[in-house]
Amino acid sequence: MSVSFSDCFSDLLCCEDSGTIFSDGDLPECSSDLESPINIEESIAGFIEDERNYVPGIDYIERFHSQSLDSSAREESIAWILKVQSYYGFQPLTAYLSVNYFDRFLYSRRLPHTNGWPLQLLSVTCLSLAAKMEEPLVPSLLDLQVGGAKYIFEPRTIRRMEFLVLGVLDWRLRSITPFTFMGFFAYKLDPTGTYTGFLISRATGIILSTIQEASFLEYWPSCIAAAAILSAANDIPNFSFVNAGHAELWCDGLSREKIIGCYRLIQADHNGRRKPPKVLPQLRVMTQARIGSSDSSSSSSTSSYKRRKLNSTSWVDDDKGSSD
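Structure tokens predicted for Cyclin D1 (324 residues):
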């Protein structure tokens, strides 16, 4: 069963006015109403100036270097998000937003454990929120938990976690992402529009193929978009002359050094470090995780994973301040 954006938020928001989600502090729409190239460039420059508000702090990546956060656990969580995105045919932006919420939450709040079921609950929650933001049809919270999920969470548990994530993110879900800049940068590289579709498609694939790598957390969305477009241009002989120096001139606020660093990291990643995630068959939920139940496990006929009932998610309730 699929549910609409409004249906999902009616459950999530209770009596709150959904219009408050998109208050004065939210992002303006990129629309055809922009009357001139000057206005468009000013809008893009504004996004570049504001993007710092939609990424984790600069010391976030250091936590992975110091191993206070587990980079392999993060990779596993994002790999699951990408599997579900591929399985349901979600937009690339949905997957990217999920990871953006995931990283912003982890930067601001510590989970009880650095891996295991808390990270999976966070992954499911972030994907659910992103899907409600971007997808016209959203699977139920149970159906969303496919792709080899080790734990199955009750919808009410996920909804509680949604409130916690929304609070930590200050309800700022319409994040600035590389896709905010992709079309503009592609146009700057190819004003005729001859290769624009290819550039955007190729750059999108590059971004999704590198999103698991924690090293990319050093670079902000505009830089990632510029480096991805440059990498995509490598496949077009007409653009063999293009380099980071050209990209720096696409808009005010871009850093040549950062673009070069991100571009080189993309090339290193492209040269064989990572394979695209496999899409696993859908798993039927046989047992739901139940708050406060005793330890037990069962398995479905379609999966070798055990469905583990969780003893406690009290840390979610403690932050929420109430329970169902």
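Residues 65 and 174 are 29 Å apart (CA to CA).
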